[in-house]
Amino acid sequence: MNSIDKLSEIFSHFPGIGPRQARRFVYYLLSRNHNFSEDLIRAIENIKREITQCSSCHRFFTKNGSPSTLCSICADASRDSSLLMVVPRDIDLEAIERSGSFNGYYFVLGGSLPILEKEPEKRIRISNLEIRINKDWEKLKEIILGMNANAEGENTADFIKEKFKNLDIPFTTLGRGLSTGAELEYADPETLKNALLHRSK
Amino acid sequence: MNSIDKLSEIFSHFPGIGPRQARRFVYYLLSRNHNFSEDLIRAIENIKREITQCSSCHRFFTKNGSPSTLCSICADASRDSSLLMVVPRDIDLEAIERSGSFNGYYFVLGGSLPILEKEPEKRIRISNLEIRINKDWEKLKEIILGMNANAEGENTADFIKEKFKNLDIPFTTLGRGLSTGAELEYADPETLKNALLHRSK
Amino acid sequence: MNSIDKLSEIFSHFPGIGPRQARRFVYYLLSRNHNFSEDLIRAIENIKREITQCSSCHRFFTKNGSPSTLCSICADASRDSSLLMVVPRDIDLEAIERSGSFNGYYFVLGGSLPILEKEPEKRIRISNLEIRINKDWEKLKEIILGMNANAEGENTADFIKEKFKNLDIPFTTLGRGLSTGAELEYADPETLKNALLHRSK
Amino acid sequence: MNSIDKLSEIFSHFPGIGPRQARRFVYYLLSRNHNFSEDLIRAIENIKREITQCSSCHRFFTKNGSPSTLCSICADASRDSSLLMVVPRDIDLEAIERSGSFNGYYFVLGGSLPILEKEPEKRIRISNLEIRINKDWEKLKEIILGMNANAEGENTADFIKEKFKNLDIPFTTLGRGLSTGAELEYADPETLKNALLHRSK
Predict the structure, then answer these.
(1) Which of A23, A28, A47 is opposite residue D3, by nearest beta carbon?
(2) How many domains does chain C have?
(3) Which residue, B17, B26, C179, D171, is the most exposed by fewest CB within 10 angstroms?
């Protein structure tokens, strides 16, 4: 395999990238001057060197030379320690932080569970979640399962609830209803039922 | 204009149909035998003859020779008369009935109000809604504004609430949250805020 | 079935229309005043009354009270009678007329043949085509098979060529190459081969 | 800017990649183990080290330690030196090679010219093309302008023809017609005109 094919092959593993677009990436790199590739290489080295996983929520964060193993959110003592929100990925955590509507702590599962997944423990950080819950179980009053509103999200929530069924902390799930932009005509019965259930003045 | 152009022109007014597809409809009709066109004409005549608007909710319904001016829902005394749900169009009412999660009565506005609409009274049946509310105001405990979760829906809800601001019956709106299939990563802040607000065990 | 369901059912047979859009058509008709439905009915009656199939090319055309059984193209003696172009449908004939690049006569097959079609004679007007060719065989110097550039089009062309293999008139097919807007990167080998073959100064 | 933002910013310059997908790339890299990033970095370094531009056609190729400045196509003396095909980018050259229908030599322009481009000489390798043509002008019998069938492609072809109008070698353009999959109904007049012009037995 020549080096164009080799780099194309690596890019084709990137999320959402097929072989054709992977090849365009390679030609794009070739067409840019040497500095661009050097910047790219340095940036990749930097994330590997500077980014670490938070020992509490497991999201990726920039160390910035600090010896702390906690990300800025987990290190922020002003947040509400009675609330823990479990989300599939870093990018979901970022979306919720951007919305500015949650002030508790997070835990990043690292993925979600497809129906009939045979090795759930390998796919999501379920034992780390256990450690995280145990650490704070006296303060925790609610664990929010912040999953996507699809079959995989529901399956993941069911798995977690079953796993911790003996725990004395209530699990909640995100409210269902009409997403922004949703039209009644195209809404499914489940969404409409919840929209009616959660109606507000 | 020849008759192919004329019929194409009429079909091009149908919702979602452009001139090209309108023309395909005409050729489709020409390609079918005479019975198909006759069935179509008869069915159009029938809806105009047999369908009427309910005098209470203003949805279209089949008279079936009955002298009643009420549709089957409005004529059903077993429904909850303390709840009135206002929806934009017949098709929205049908979606909610299909979901099986509402047992009150409906009122069909006949549309919704774009932002800055100059003549709202011509666009929606606001005076008929007034008559409908007045008729039952002693029984009504809640009026649900069943609007689409978009700017036009919110504008319509605002207009109705302003119009009836002196009325002593609470107006509610449908619950916002994650529609079926919604993913946190792509959800807007408003949806996430509501999803957190309406979380449930 | 009530009359709304009945008319929806008929509209759902229209090309490209599913049950949901068919139902929107019905509500659209109900929402328009009586004149609109009457215009629609009259226009449907008119195409059935005024439109007839040309006895030569089999396209649909407006009689306009004339006793002629020929459409305006077939009746136009100034066109080139040495060229006959066979097209699948009326709408294809219209596209070619609009392009202004053909001055011969047409024959409308009424469809095309899917691969492995068991009853080709029922699907396309092959015996009418035979009659049409026989009528003019002394004048005809070329029969152009104006098919779509897909498997069904090629299959139809193959069927016609096989059917008339003993005929002493050459069959031609439309030139392949780069359609307007085509990009080399996404072009298939067949298209590129033809684009190279048909290159021009 | 932290290192996640920095790498996202670089990925967002990749062709077809927006800020959201760029961020997903970063998290993807973080989620993969160290070897993956090292492979990626090494592959980027390799293309910069091993890949060079052919001194004749200007495509990128793998040196493989050879001191030759010619790519495998330009170094292949068995190809037809009377034909030179000018293409916008490496990826177009690859598409044509895959089609197996061209046996001459290529020249890669490095892009194409938008309408009203003010500095065409900076956008495409027009002076390198002049050098290439001059080198072989005695052998060259035809220069094929292998451009995309869009406005930018035509503009580029026009620019090249104007530039070399005093040259005694004919320029040709790729044949227009029906691309594979094209349907008559949706074809534009230009495509239909060419399809009729280039019809074949």
Answers:
(1) A47
(2) 2
(3) D171
